[in-house]
Amino acid sequence: MSQIFRGFAWSSIERFSVQGISFLLNIIIARIVSPSAYGLIVMVQVFLSFSQLLIDGGFANALIQKKDRDETDYGTVFLVNLGVAVCLYLLLFTAAPVIAEFYNEPQLTSITRVVSLNLILSSLTIVQKTRLTIHLDFKTQTKVGLIAVIISGAVGIVCAYSGLEVWALVLQSLISQFVLSFALMYFSRWIPKLRFSVHSFKRLFSFGSKLMLSNILTSIYFNVINLVIGKKYTSADLAFYNRGFNLSLFPASILSDALNRVIFPVLTQVQDDLNTLRREYLKYLHLTHYIILPLMGLLLVLAEPLIEILLTPRWLGAVPYLQIFCLNFMLYPIQLQAGNPVAALGHSGILLKAQLLKRIVTFGILIFTLTISIPAVCWGILSSSVFEALVNVLICRKEIDVGIRAHLRSLADVILTVAVICLSVYFLTSFISNALMKLLIGGTLGVVLYLLATWVFNFREKEYLANAFMFVKSKCGKKMIS
Predict the structure, then answer these.
(1) What sign does the CA torsion over 278, 281, 284, 290 have?
(2) What DSSP assignment string belongs to 303-365?
(3) What is the dihedral of CA 436, 438, 443, 449, to 10 degrees?
(4) Exposed/middle/buried for 194, CB within 10 Å: 0-12, 13-18, 19+?
(5) Taking CA atoms, which of 211, 295, 393, 434 is between 20 and 30 Å from 94?
């Protein structure tokens, strides 16, 4: 079994196990705490997510892209990450009363000051995770992630049942990051050498800064939405919007990110062979769509019974947002992966220029829709994603000669199959009134039909499914023997 498949397998296991358990634990906590308490955390998260991008500074991808990286490079990035994190924490600590006054939520002063400690803790592990990713060692990351999510989730549930409301969420996030940071240091067996090189910083920053600015523009775009909704509407409205967004983001990101963490290092290894680069990009793009499109389609069709069962009827206000975002995240693989072959070639500058163009258009749409309603904002995000996907494809055409026609030809079989199956599930489940039965029957039917179509139409992913089965079988066999 190839190192690439093993890397993808462990990356997927890490995402599914860690993020999956975290997702389930958060569902349990969300059933206990009120939507308004959840909304308070989302308000603070606006500032934390933006700060996290500044801390990373694009250095993680710069280290992956650089072939001749050494301990001086790692030490330089570690010191920069930590220094920026401390500065940003002090800034947020000072600005906490201003944030609370902006939202007219006095609790946010203390919440911001405590939860922002996550920035310092997370900065300690960026280089460790990058080194493990370079070596496709997602097994270690899986172990560490599971330990952190189980411990923090258990604490969060206990605190929620104790009536701590928003502080249960704060404590859960802090303990998760604390355990993650120190467990990763222990298991990675890497101690940073406190070396700082101006030459190394300039070289890495030259590449990473362009990716950072590109990511910052995206972060500003989505966080402005949370900022305005939190200011203009209630914290419960923000919670419904955010829950719909995150429920749809979860399956899209968990698989795309798992594959992306493997394929980007792989593409950097073949950056000197354009034909191989092109072939590998299309192969893994198809695989990602093969997995994500049916998940998004079934989630769209079964959104209402899913939320009713998982989150209780008091969260049904999130259903329309969830359905719109399911359509939106069907485009997520192209948005995420189309830049990989370009970045692998070292052309991060064109990605930044494209991001500037995309943000000019998407901010225009956002400003217009924010004056209407929250659903209008969601539809605006969808139209923006369509535009961004088209721009990304045009970049691929220019840089690696893979245009719109090549993308559609590569993905047509999956798109048509998913459309037919989702329409069939929607029609058949419309006769079922019980939410649980609708969810179970609809989900089972969709999966069975999709697997059947995979074999009937001979999708290339048959090989991956067979490899995945053998991978799981071998692991189970080893456990039984031991």
Answers:
(1) negative
(2) HHHHHHHHH-GGGGGGHHHHHHHHHHHTTHHHHHHTTHHHHHTT-HHHHHHHHHHHHHHHHHH
(3) 150
(4) exposed
(5) 211
Q: Return d(Cα 28, Cα 153) in angstroms, integer.
A: 9
* Total H helices, total E strands in the chain: 22, 0
Cα–Cα dist 60/71, whole Å: 14
Structure tokens at 383: 């139209």
DSSP 260-276: HHHHHHHHHHTTT-HHH
**What is the average pLDDT across 292-308?**
91
CA 181 from centroid of its chain's CA atoms: 19
Taking phi over 0 as left and psi of -120 to 50 as alpha, with beta for the rest, 104 belongs to: left
| In contact, 317 and 310? CB cutoff 8 Å | no
Could you tell me which of 447, 479, 443, 478 has the C-alpha nearest to residue 465?
447
pTM of this prediction? Answer: 0.65
What pLDDT sits at residue 405? 85
Query: Per residue in 207-218, pLDDT tens?
Result: 667 667 766 777
DSSP three-state, residue 38: helix
Tokens of 28: 């349990």
pLDDT digits (tens, 9 = 90+) for 66-83: 767 778 888 888 888 889
Residue listed under structure tokens 């172990």: 143
Q: What is the torsional sign of CA 183, 188, 191, 195?
A: negative
User: Which residues, other chains included, contact 363 with Cβ-Cβ below 8 Å and sequence gap of 6+?
Assistant: 221
347 burial level (CB within 10 Å; 0-12, 13-18, 19+): middle
Q: Using CA atoms, how far apart are residues 195 and 343, in angstroms rounded to an integer?
A: 27
Higher-scoring residue by pLDDT: 58, 414: 414
The secondary structure of residue 124, as a DSSP letter, is T
Which letter does DSSP use for residue 10 in this model?
A: H
Helix (H) or strand (E) holding 58: none
Please name the residue that has the structure tokens 């634990």. Answer: 25
CA distance 236 to 40: 9
Q: Which of 73-82, 220-229, 341-350 has the highest mean pLDDT?
A: 73-82
